Amino acid sequence: MKLLLDFPTIGEPHYAQGIAASKIIERSKKIYPIEENKHPYAALGEKQAKVVREGNTVHVYMTMIRSHFAPDNIEGIKVGDKVYFHVTNLEQDWDTPHGFSVMGARNAELLIMPGQTETLLWEPDRIGVFPFYCTDFCSALHQEMQGYVRVSPANSNVPLTWKLGDKPPVQ
Ligand SMILES: [Cu+2]
Question: Engineering a disulfide at 156: which of 85, 121, 152, 165 sits with its beta carbon 3.0 to 4.6 angstroms away?
């Protein structure tokens, strides 16, 4: 590759690389059309958001759009569960990726492009209330984009419920 430019970036702790925009623009994918999303755990609208328990495995069918998650409040997760967050970015504006992370997860956060669904596994190992949140700056309300999961003891019988905002919980 031909070196075009090389210099230290004073005052910044990272290095930079550059490439001609013309090499990228033609290959850039701007939108993942939501109607083409065939992910088996996608929620293609907030009405499809749900939480399903199968033994110790919990599947969260979650949506994200500026500036909230659905559901944003989940109860009835237990210590020792394997919780799969299947998070669908409902945006159909290009350049509006959202991120997803949950406190205590031992893997990297997700970066989810508009129209895509990605999955994060979380295995809560202690009781408590754990926030999940958007990790990619998405708008002025980015900091509001969060929710909570309550983790109960392994032997508790707290029912699995979830809700969005002030709506009553779904069981
Ligand atoms: Cu976001």
Answer: 152
